[in-house]
């Protein structure tokens, strides 16, 4: 009996369903996810390269934007390749350790992104409400320290949760009715009481999201108050435009996250495949939209990307001209040696 129990609770791999009920349409469903992944890779890589190469963008605000781009790349890469493997190759199996590693990355970098968004709101508060002290308060090294602190905070609160989840015995059916190792879907497969891990995840999510959103709301409330006191309408509009991209990203992150979480907790009468699709799009669409929001809302990022593209185009043209020149010189030499080529 003990041998049977041990074999039942061994860390066997899980099986991902993909989109329940819509397995026959996986090939078609994969198209938008593949597109969003490619666009996310291109867009966020372009933002990182632009900030890296354009020295005029070496400022705290753009360092935070770079952090968001890195987070988006990690989000997408942690989820989409395996998802496409399920859709395209029916590669449904995911190892026990790989499943919880994927879950760790998703939840950790969700917490990290929340911390970076809080730091961005603080950055805008200092820039608008106390501009004379901006360069002394937010130095480059301090910005990096804030990013590392967000990473340590996210990993620190999620590591105990992963320890609690991996210690549970999973002796039920190993089929996860999802496209990735979604937390609640995996916990339902445990054959022990998961109330401790559920309570921990609820408390952590409430404290992190609640605290960060309160401070973000306070920061933008103070910003709005200061902006409304500016004497010039042009100055007010410029300040609001500067914060517009940040507010858009914040709303996309928090509203999408809350919607996805509540749909996983309460079905509200929705079909399972609708719940899964909402969760999948939450992890794949914002990483694609964030660079577009930067490009639309932030003139400096726009100009930096255009300069980068112009520089790359100029290099391509100069290289093509050099190749043509080299080819012409080679042909001239050949004609000199072999007049028959004329």
Descriptive keywords:
single chain; 342 residues; mainly alpha; three-stranded mixed β-sheet; 11 helices; 2% strand; disordered N terminus; disordered C terminus
Question: Care to describe what's here?
Answer:
- The protein has 342 residues and is mainly alpha-helical.
- Helix content is 78%, strand content 2%.
- It is built from eleven helices and three strands, in the order αβααβαααβααααα.
- It has a three-stranded mixed sheet.
- Helix 3 packs antiparallel against helix 4 (96-129).
- The longest helix has 39 residues, at 299-337.
- The protein is globular and about 65 Å long.
- The termini are far apart.
Helix content: over 70%
**C-alpha-based Rg, rounded:** 25 Å
The major beta sheet can be summarized as: 3 strands, mixed
> Largest beta sheet: what is the strand line-up?
2-1-3
**Please, what is the average pLDDT?**
82
Give me the count of strands: 3
Structural class: mainly alpha
Q: Helix segment count?
A: 11
Strand content: under 5%
Chain-wise SSE layout:
Layout (H helix, E strand, L loop, with lengths): L1 H7 L5 E3 L9 H28 L6 H30 L3 E2 L1 H34 L4 H4 L2 H27 L8 E2 L6 H5 L7 H34 L4 H33 L6 H26 L1 H39 L5
Parallel strand pairs: 1-3
Antiparallel strand pairs: 1-2
Helix pairs in contact: 2-3, 2-10, 2-11, 3-4, 3-6, 3-10, 4-6, 4-8, 4-9, 6-8, 8-9, 9-10, 10-11
